[in-house]
Write a structure and sequence with these properties.
The chain has 136 residues and is mainly beta. The protein has one domain: Immunoglobulin-like (Sandwich), CATH 2.60.40. It has helices at 2-16, 21-24; strands at residues 26-31, 43-51, 56-57, 61-67, 70-75, 81-85, 92-93, 98-103, 114-122, 125-126, 128-129, 132-135. The strands form two sheets. Strands 1, 2, 4, 5, 6, 8, 9, 10, 11 and 12 form a ten-stranded mixed sheet that branches. It has a two-stranded antiparallel sheet with strand order 3-7. The termini are far apart.
Length: 136
């Protein structure tokens, strides 16, 4: 009987300690108004917070786009995909800012009507949100 009571207490304690920002945040990704081309500098996706409880540090964020069998890294310093942000601190993804994902010398989406999968992680934990955007 004591073991069951302690197990129940421990279970509640562990559940209440789960305060990782990734588990409490949710974003929405949408297509931008620009039409993709065969160029390598198209504006692709806009991302806004639906729910965010604290700013996230960019050095702990991993963001990837997947189109068919290809995976592209997105960073604020610019790899395959450049993350443009509107906040006041370039080191943080702030709770009130929106992001724009832009091709950075790589043709990620060359034609209208392409599905782009989005994967965003913070400290290795996936952040909830839109998993796929139709870019057109």
């Amino acid at each position: 009987m004591i073991t069951i009571a302690l197990a129940g207490c421990m279970e509640r304690l562990v559940a209440s300690e789960s305060h990782e920002p990734a588990s409490r945040s949710m974003y929405r990704a949408t297509d931008t108004s620009s039409t993709p081309t065969e160029d390598s500098d198209d504006v692709l996706i806009s991302i806004r917070w639906i729910e965010a409880h604290e700013d996230l540090h960019w050095d702990s964020i991993t963001m990837k786009l997947e189109v068919d069998d290809s995976v592209y890294d997105c960073t604020i310093t610019g790899s395959d995909c450049l993350i443009s942000q509107d906040g006041s601190d370039d080191n943080l993804w702030q709770t009130n800012e929106f992001l724009t994902l832009i091709e950075n010398g790589v043709d990620i989406v060359s034609s209208s009507g392409t599905n782009v999968e989005i994967h965003i992680f913070y400290h290795g934990d996936q952040i909830s949100g839109t998993s796929e955007v139709l870019v057109q």
